[in-house]
Amino acid sequence: MTGGEPLLHSNLFYLINHIQKIGISDIRLTTNGYLLKERASKLFDAGVKSINISVDAIDQDIFGEISRHPNTARVFQGIEAAVKAGMNVKLNAVIMRGKNDSQIIPLLDYAAGLGVKIRFLELMKMGHLYHSENGLFFSEKEMLAVIQEKYTIEPVKREYAETSNYWRTSGGGTFGIIANESTPFCHDCNRLRMDSNGIFYGCLSNAHGEKLSPYIHDDVLLTEKLRGLLRLKQPVKFHGSELSMRNIGG
């Protein structure tokens, strides 16, 4: 479950319960962490064992400028509450040139200190950024160069359909890079997304979506529609689209 911000959903725990009732036991959630401190234990008890938390900086001023949250301490308290609750925590940071590229090492060290993985993301050409040349793009190669100024790194074998390439550092940390532009993972992507209106999307590089609820009781048509959406996937390279990540999830 992603967003927007799923922790704002008034019926979140009702939704989690009903997702489990239809036979989906592996429920994961992506959040900005702002409301997580108060909800981490309850989420874990409800069945959410894995959580991705967006945190784009350690420095309070940089974090505040990017997230527009005046109380950034709440996010870090939420991260630590999730770790304490027993969740499998991953931190996500979109790295932008001149904005937070100075935060790569501080974020890496923070994650290592908590014993959790962090994933650095290349900026995606989505929504209002699709036609934009804004100079913010910071590549996987540049991220690795920054990290190697402090640590020796060792690559970890990539799992099938994994969005990240992972490395271990000589400092004991583990980090991944989601490099849609530099190292795309389109060739074995197995993901579908459903937005809050029930519209399914097969690929972030294709703005076509389809509502599948009319076919839910017709296995043949439903399978055909799902295969059609999967065929929209790019065979080699991510191109982006005018889809807004705010609507279909981070």
Automatic annotation (TrEMBL):
The keyword Nucleotide-binding applies. Residues 1-154 form the Radical SAM core domain. InterPro entries: Aldolase_TIM (IPR013785), MoaA_twitch (IPR010505), MoCo_biosynth_MoaA/MoaC (IPR050105), rSAM (IPR007197), rSAM_sf (IPR058240). Its cofactor is [4Fe-4S] cluster. Transmembrane segments: none annotated. Pfam families: Mob_synth_C, Radical_SAM. One of its GO terms (molecular function) is metal ion binding. PROSITE patterns: RADICAL_SAM (PS51918). Keywords: GTP-binding, Iron, Iron-sulfur, Metal-binding, Molybdenum cofactor biosynthesis, Nucleotide-binding, S-adenosyl-L-methionine. GO terms for biological process: Mo-molybdopterin cofactor biosynthetic process. This is Molybdenum cofactor biosynthesis protein MoaA. It comes from Aquipluma nitroreducens.
